[in-house]
Amino acid sequence: MFTTTLKSVLAGSLLAASSLSFAADIDMNADVNDLAIKGYDPVSYFTMAAPKLGNVNYTATYKGGIYRFSNEENRDLFNKNPAKYAPQYGGYCAFGVAMEKKFDTDPLAWKIADGKLYLNLNKDVQKKWLTDVPGYVSQSDENWQDIRKVPAAEL
Prior knowledge:
- 34% of the residues are buried.
- The protein folds into two domains: 23-86, no CATH class; 87-155, no CATH class.
- The protein is 42% helix and 19% strand.
- It is built from seven helices and six strands; from the N terminus they run αβαβββαααββαα.
- The model is unreliable at 1-22 (pLDDT under 50).
- It comes from Thalassomonas viridans.
- Residues 1-23 form the signal peptide.
- This is YHS domain-containing protein.
C-alpha cells in the first residue's frame, strides 16, 4: 500500500514538474499546460488544407508553446521551420489583434493567407475578418509590435 501511494505521489509530482518545465512566452496563446492551438497540428493546415488534432507522441516546442503533430513527418517539417507553420500573432485571434486585443481562438476558424496561418476567435468573428484580410493583417501586424508583450488581461 505504501509503495502504491508513493508511486501515486511521485507520478503526480513528475506531472506537475513537467507541466512547469516550459513557460509559454507572454506573446504565445497557450493553455495552462503550454499547449498551443488546443492540440491541433499546425502543419496539417498547410499539408491537408484542414486542421487535424495532433498526437501526444509527436510534439515540439516553439516560443515556449508545446505543439502536437499528427505524425512524425509533420513534426519534422515544423522543426525545420517553425515560423512558417506556427500561427501568426502567437496564435491569438487575428481580428482581435487588429482591434488591439488578445483573444483566444477556435482552431477551426482559420485561414492561410500569403503562406501564413491566421486563427480567429470563432467563425462569426472570422466572417468579419474575411471581409478585408489584407487590411486587417496590415493593422494586426502594426498593432502586434505594441501589444505582443502585454498580458491579454491588460488589453
